[in-house]
Amino acid sequence: MSVTTTTHLNFRGAAREALDFYRSVFGGRTVAVTYEDAGAVRDESEADWVMWGEVTGDDGFHVMAYDVPAHLPWNPGENPFFVSVRGTDTEELGTLWGRLAEGSTVVRALEPAPWAPLYGMLTDRFGVTWVLDVAVPYGA
């Protein structure tokens, strides 16, 4: 048996925009099922909100998202999680950083760090904090 983990992001009315943005950064395919598609509309103003969505890339990138309806509590919190993107190619990681940084707040610039050849942290316009780094093989 194998197990994988996928970051699941919760929004209130911005899930589709966030999924489209992440697809524009990482590539891949977007699937989005609205509350209307699922026959689960409780508030007509939320009919086109995403009940279940994801971006899946051929390179293994995968993120899920949905819009929390108004009848449920939702508080994005403060630093409740980070999304980690770890790669082995500094050029590729730099390209992803450049795309993701559009409209974002840089917490730590993408640069060499004592623990990684390249490391950076930013919070995107949706309030999601991303950590990008170049992996170092354990024991190296």
Question: In words, what does this structure look like?
Answer:
16% of the residues lie in helices and 38% in strands. The chain contains 2 helices and 8 strands, in the order βαββββαβββ. The protein has helices spanning 15-26, 90-100; strands at 7-11, 29-34, 50-56, 62-67, 82-87, 105-113, 116-123, 129-134. The chain starts with 6 loop residues before the first strand and ends in a 6-residue tail after the last strand. The mean pLDDT is 91.
Helix content: 10-25%
Number of strands: 8
SS-derived structural category: alpha/beta
Q: Biggest sheet, in brief?
A: 4 strands, mixed
Shape: elongated
Residue-averaged pLDDT, rounded? 91
Number of helices: 2
In spatial order, strands of the major sheet run 1-4-3-2
Distance between the termini: 29 Å
Radius of gyration, whole Å: 17 Å
Encode the helix/strand succession as letters: EHEEEEHEEE
Strand fraction band?
Answer: 35-45%
Please summarize what this structure is.
The chain has helices at residues 15-26, 90-100, and strands spanning 7-11, 29-34, 50-56, 62-67, 82-87, 105-113, 116-123, 129-134.
